[in-house]
Write a structure and sequence with these properties.
Elements lengths: L9 E9 L2 E7 L4 E6 L5 H11 L23 E9 L6 H4 L2 E9 L3 E7 L4 E3 L2 H10 L10 E2 L1 H9 L3 H11 L2 H47 L3 H118 L8 H62 L10 H10 L14 E3 L5 H7 L7 E3 L2 H13 L6 E3 L23 E3 L2 H11 L4 E3 L3 H9 L7 E3 L5 E5 L2 E5 L12 H17 L5 H49 L2 H39 L6 H51 L10 H20 L3 H64 L3 E7 L4 E7 L7 E2 L5 H15 L7 E5 L7 H18 L2 E6 L11 E6 L7
Helix pairs in contact: 6-19, 7-15, 7-16, 7-17, 7-18, 8-14, 8-15, 19-20, 20-21
Length: 976
């Protein structure tokens, strides 16, 4: 298949000992090459290699700070080789059809070589490489041509219009044009400054001419100077008044600076507060980790204790076996000795022992029957006793809980919600005379219509109920003084508008909102709650499931939903957030009187009940009786066991004596028993060694020292101390601000008084110069008068004036000549700027049309809004089910990535670089958006004639086309 528009630029890429590849060769035969593979297969190494060879710095590729970081682990050098097709005929007599660019990377340095197809080196200089790149328009510093993995992730997730506009300017290379124009304007500015120096010299000459003319005039007319001095003295009087005005402005500036310092200190205080919160969270995390480690140590300690217990049990078992073998050995030895003493006669006592054993066994059976009967009766009693205990425990717990509730509800009223000093604050506010009406607290201005929503509405308005609203700054200062006096800190809000009606808002007809269940007395309170708490967009829903369904449907004019229990449900970043409010001890709209009566009635009912504990006593009696019976059974079992041992011993003695009569094997058995005893003693020594190792590990666990959290606690305390210091500094600043304000008012009064005095004295107000300058002028005129009395040579003054006029004409001619040149240059620069703006606007218009076309393919409506004045690029897109186009922040991850790919495709036709390289462009896309984006990319490379290299970690089943090569990399073997 032929590709008429396609001009191949990169023929192949070869990586040797580079990153994770030992040797990788990729030939680019078609317009589009797709590189795919699993994570760790080295896909991005292909892009890093191309960028590294074709002019990119190592740190800009975000794969390390230097070249040596890109050498394969265990190797000392690496080679990256890119072969370019010389279809434009660069130095054709030397390079012919192919240009090879090779980068050799060592641990300490890296070299570049530009060779022909026969590997003859043409140059090893970076300047020559930049010449080749410029000849083929390979501008890989442009992120739209060469979008690396990290750049791609940032680009796909960015929502900042300023950053998008900067990317548009860099990508379309308009930023370089702007830079050249700015340099030209800088040169013009420099020339203007130099002309300004000449102009200043010209003004100085003119000043000298005027001085000479003044001198000539003074010589001719000395009488008029006295009147001029009088006028200057009037001007000096006004200069003093104007200096007073400047002092007023200076005081006001100091006041503003102090206010700005207060704002800065408040910002520092907020940072420290955040640091304290972060430190507490980290402290909690460290303590949790130490707790987890302690649990692990305790678990291991239990395992060691269990293992030691098992080994000691095994040791005891072996000890018992040894003891048994010793007893058997001693027994057989004794039998042999006794048999020898009895001269071969066998005796036995087994019948008498069996008779005694049968009698004791029958007694044990009768006692066991008695024990079973008592156990059945005891179990029934214990069951009844537990039921009695549960009833008593539940009753006691209920009584304790009710006492706390009664105590709490007895002390509480709505005023207690605002703190213990609130009553004194309200009393003083009522006695204070304000300039205008003061509204507050807001809790007094609102009433709940439906008590069912008391908990939810209390949570929504919790932070605003104590707010006071004032109409002007003076009333705010008065209110702050009252709060400081009573040591309270209630929020104060100043009205931004004094409109008497409630602001217009979109009423939610479909759902019940917080605004619907409130009765608000004042319009300014309603406006404040709408602006700060969004009560018109906070809906109230009975059940959690229904709330989830409503929020998931993304209804218009709904910010979040609250259930009756106060749980907040909202949509955050495309996912549902379910927030359960904790730490709120008191709900403002709660009806405490009704709850208090219910608690008292329940307490009375519980106190009148008198539960009994009869089954517990009976259970104790049965337990005692069972203990006595069990002791008797154990005694008889011990007797039986003793009889069994005696019988067994007698039988063994009898059998052994019989064996001795027939053979001498007992002596061999004694030797065998001694050998077994020796082996068991050796096994005991091994067990003792294992127990010793475990006990050492146990000591190490006991001696383990937990991680110290003292540093974290010290940081928190230090931050608290710093925060207290800043708070004190803010208080001092506020006092300084008040002092500066008073100074400003005093200076203002003095300025007004002096100005009024001058006007009353008939002196007309004039724009005066500084007082020192006027004084110097008076002195100068007086000196001229004195000088003129001495000057007698008028001809010399005329000659000086003639000389100065000639100098003025020469410099003025030079100045006019250069001004014309500057205006010509400035006209050319402005013409270029106009053409640049026209070109930029045309590119922006074409990109907007192409973006709209590409998004319509997916069924979306995309809009690119360029604001060249503010340097902003807003990307908006209306997806299915939306009534209007929204910004990228309102889109899902897949929709945002699709919009980003559409933006890249809309800008590519304006770029001259013949190669486009993208890495992980589809990492955040869902399947539908990815398929459509891939189809758009394939269509672009099929029609545009550009060469493309796409790198993706995802499936490639949608990428197989005749004009597209798909290369799937396998994960390199680390053993290579």
């Amino acid at each position: 298949m032929s590709y008429e528009k396609f001009k191949k630029t990169i023929v192949s890429i070869e990586l040797i000992k580079f990153m994770c590849h030992s040797h990788l060769l990729i030939s680019l035969r078609k317009p589009l090459t797709i590189v795919s593979g699993c994570n760790g297969s080295g896909k991005s190494a292909v892009m890093v290699g191309i960028g590294l060879v074709l002019g990119q710095r190592a740190h800009s590729l975000e794969r390390g700070s230097s070249f040596k970081d890109l050498i394969k682990s265990g190797e000392s050098n690496a080679i990256v080789r890119v072969v370019l097709e010389n279809h434009k005929g660069f130095k054709r007599e030397f390079f012919k059809e192919k240009i090879i660019v090779e980068k050799r990377i060592g641990m300490r340095s890296a070299t570049i070589s530009i060779m022909n197809g026969e590997r003859r080196v043409w140059s090893m200089r970076r300047e020559d490489l930049e010449l080749v790149l410029e000849f083929f328009s390979l501008r890989f510093e442009n992120p739209l041509n060469f979008l690396s993995q990290e750049q791609s992730k940032r680009f796909l997730s960015t929502m900042n219009p300023e950053m998008l506009y900067e990317l548009f300017m860099q990508g379309t290379e308009m930023a370089e044009v702007c830079k050249l124009n700015d340099e030209s304007m800088g040169n013009v500015k420099t020339m203007r400054e130099r002309i300004g120096l000449v102009d200043e010299e010209l003004r100085e000459i003119e000043k000298q001419i005027k001085d000479e003319e003044s001198r000539l005039e003074i010589i001719k007319n000395v009488k008029t100077m006295a009147r001029t001095i009088a006028e200057l003295e009037d001007e000096m009087a006004w200069a003093k008044v104007n200096e007073r005005r400047i002092e007023v402005e200076r005081c006001f500036k100091k006041f503003q600076d102090k206010q700005e310092e207060i704002d800065r200190e408040n910002a520092k205080l907020e940072e420290l507060s955040q640091a304290i919160r972060d430190g507490r969270e980290k402290l909690t995390m460290v303590e949790s980790e130490e707790m987890e480690k302690k649990r692990s140590r305790d678990k291991r300690k239990e395992e060691i204790d269990s293992a030691i217990g098992k080994l000691r049990m095994k040791y005891r078992e072996i000890e018992n076996d040894c003891l048994e073998l010793r007893e058997t050995r001693d027994f057989k030895s004794r039998i042999a000795i006794d048999f020898e003493k009895q001269d071969g006669v066998v005796k036995g006592l087994v019948p008498q022992l069996e008779e005694r054993y049968n009698k004791v066994s029958s007694e044990i059976e009768s006692l066991n029957e008695r024990m079973e009967k008592l156990a059945v009766e005891g179990e029934e009693c214990r069951k009844r006793a537990r039921e009695e205990e549960d009833v008593l425990s539940e009753r006691q717990s209920n009584i304790l809980h009710l006492r706390k509730q009664i105590e709490f509800y007895s002390k509480n009223d709505q005023n207690s919600f605002f703190g213990p000093n609130f009553g004194g604050v309200i009393d003083e506010i009522s006695k204070t005379r304000f300039n205008e009406k003061v509204v507050g607290p807001i809790g007094f201005e609102v009433k709940l219509k439906d008590p069912r929503w008391s908990k939810a509405v209390s949570i929504v308005l919790n932070s605003t109920l104590s707010t006071f609203i004032v109409m002007n700054k003076l009333d705010k200062d008065i209110l702050l003084k009252i709060f400081r006096k009573h040591k309270v800190d209630f929020p104060i809000s100043a009205l931004s508008t004094r409109a008497p009606e409630v602001i217009k808002y979109k009423r939610n007809e479909k759902y019940k909102t917080v605004l619907d269940v409130l009765e608000i007395r004042s319009p300014c309170v309603a406006n404040y709650l709408i602006i700060t708490a969004s009560i018109e967009q906070t809906i109230l829903v009975e059940g959690r499931k229904e709330a989830y369904e409503i929020i998931r449907s993304r209804p218009g004019f709904v910010e979040c939903a609250y259930t009756k229990n106060g749980d907040k449900i909202r949509l955050v970043g495309g996912s549902m957030s379910d927030f359960v409010t904790r730490g709120v001890d008191r709900f403002y709209f709660e009806n405490t009187r009704e709850k208090l009566e219910r608690c008292k009635m329940e307490m009375k009912r519980l106190m009148e009940e008198k539960p009994e504990k009869s089954w517990g006593k009976r259970s104790e009696e049965i337990r005692d009786e069972m203990g006595k019976v069990n002791e008797e059974i154990e005694h008889r079992r011990r007797v039986c066991k003793s009889l069994e041992a005696e019988m067994e011993q007698e039988k063994q003695i009898h059998d052994a004596q019989m064996e001795i009569m027939h053979s001498d094997e007992i002596y061999e058995e004694i030797k065998s028993l001694e050998h077994q005893i020796s082996l068991l003693e050796k096994k005991q020594d091994e067990i003792n060694e294992e127990i010793g190792a475990l006990e050492r590990e146990q000591r190490e666990i006991k001696e383990y020292k937990i991680a110290s959290t003292e540093n974290l606690r010290q940081d928190i305390c230090r931050n608290k101390a710093e925060a207290s210091k800043i708070e004190r500094k803010i208080d001092l600043c506020r006092l300084d601000a008040l002092r500066l304000k008073e100074e400003h008012l005093k200076e203002m009064e003095a300025y007004s008084l002096e100005k009024r005095r001058l006007v009353e004295n008939g002196k007309k107000e004039i724009d005066s110069r500084p007082e020192d300058e006027i004084r110097k002028e008076i002195i100068r005129i007086k000196a001229q008068i004195d000088m003129c009395k001495e000057v007698e040579d008028e001809k010399k003054t005329l000659a000086t004036m003639e000389h100065l006029r000639k100098m003025k004409n020469v410099k003025k001619g030079l100045l006019d000549e250069y001004k014309k040149k500057i205006e010509s240059i400035l006209s050319d620069v402005e013409s270029r700027i106009t053409k640049r703006d026209a070109m930029r606007n045309e590119i922006a218009r074409n990109a907007a049309l192409e973006f709209s076309r590409l998004t319509r393919i997916r069924g979306y409506e995309g809009v690119l809004e360029f604001d060249h004045e503010k340097k902003r690029l807003d990307v908006k897109m209306k997806v299915h089910g939306q009534s209007e186009a929204g910004s990228r922040s309102m889109l899902s991850g897949g929709e945002r990535s699709f919009a980003s790919v559409s933006l890249i495709l809309s800008l590519w036709p304006s770029l001259s670089c013949p190669i486009k390289v993208l890495d992980e462009f589809d990492v955040f896309m869902d399947n539908l958006n990815r398929k459509q984006a891939i189809r758009m990319l394939l269509d672009f490379f099929k029609e545009s004639g550009f060469q493309g290299i796409l790198i993706t970690p995802l499936g490639v089943e949608d990428l197989f086309e005749d004009f597209c090569d798909v290369i799937v990399l396998e994960k390199p073997d680390k053993s290579e």
